[in-house]
Amino acid sequence: MKKKIITMSICLLIVAGIGVVLANNKAKIDAAARPVKEKRSVPVKVTVAKEDSFNTSFTINGSTVPAKEVKVASEVQGKLVGLYIENGDQVRAGQVIATLDASVYSVQLASIDASIAKARLDLARYVKLIEMGGATPMQAESVQLQINSLVAEKKQVLEQIDHMQIRAPFSGKIENVSVELGSFVTFGTVLGQLIDNSSLKINVYLSEREAFKVKLNQPVTISSAVLVQPKTGRISMISDKADASGKFLTEVSFLNNDKEKLKAGIIADVHFNAEESETGLSVPVAALVGSAKDAKVYVADGNKVSLRNIRTGVVTATKVQVTEGLRAGEQVVVSGQLNLENGTEISINK
Description:
The protein is α+β, with helices and mostly antiparallel strands. Among the domains are: 44-56 and 277-348, conserved putative lor/sdh protein from methanococcus maripaludis s2 fold (Beta Barrel); 59-66 and 197-268, Efflux pump adaptor protein, beta barrel domain (Elongation Factor Tu (Ef-tu), domain 3, Beta Barrel); 102-162. The protein contains 4 helices and 21 strands. The strands form 4 sheets. Strands 3-10-13-12-11-14 form a 6-stranded antiparallel β-barrel. The protein has a 5-stranded mixed sheet with strand order 17-16-20-1-21, with no helix packed on it. A 4-stranded antiparallel sheet has the order 2-15-19-18, with no helix packed on it. α2 (103-132) packs antiparallel against α3. The two termini are 83 Å apart. The mean pLDDT is 86.
């Protein structure tokens, strides 16, 4: 009996020992599965926000458009019996570029002329008869009214005949001819396009801040990849109403009749020179996180950073004016932002 008790005690001790070993092994496995994250600081470069001056000149690009451009269309209907233009032709203002069949109106005009001649003979006879007492003044007045009516009718027919000749409204170059000789055209049928490239316009869209810095007739500098020398233009129009995006349409006009000519539809840069400069808090463009409209910067506070919203003013190629959200002397991160988030520990590289 005593041996049996000793044997059972030994077995219990062995089982307990095995349990302790297994528990220790499980604890080690769990600890290995949940490694403690080692906190490491992110190396960054910083700079100090400081007061600076800003050149308020700015450059905006746009595309060139002709100062004059129309679609030449027929004002009446008829058969096209004369077409005197081809693509690329230069025409003068008032030059006949097409003729419609006016034979019907010519017959009407001949008939009216004959009626006017007869009425004038009748009027002359009535005048003589009135002198002899053989007619009344009322009869002569009636014939005169007939003559006046025929003259008015003749004027209308002559206007119709004139409309059968389609003329260039201004001097320029013909493009996109869309009819053939013998075609039947109606009111509004487009014969081609007339473009005057002797002067061009560039439409640009200015922000509220930019629109209030420029003035009508202010000179601007125009440059393009196809120009050897920049051109000088002037602001010919500034819209008084912003569009849906808050931009103000501004037209820049310039002469295009020198040796180096631009074509319509070319992208060009318009540089607006400002006479005055502004001062304000400045940070490098490299410090910005996001766009200038929704700008943020990482501000170094001890060994951590905080992501802060800022409001920007003048933006140049290298620096940004900060109007709200930052104080002079605060340090902002200019390199290493990709590895940062709000509250990240940092180490500053000198």
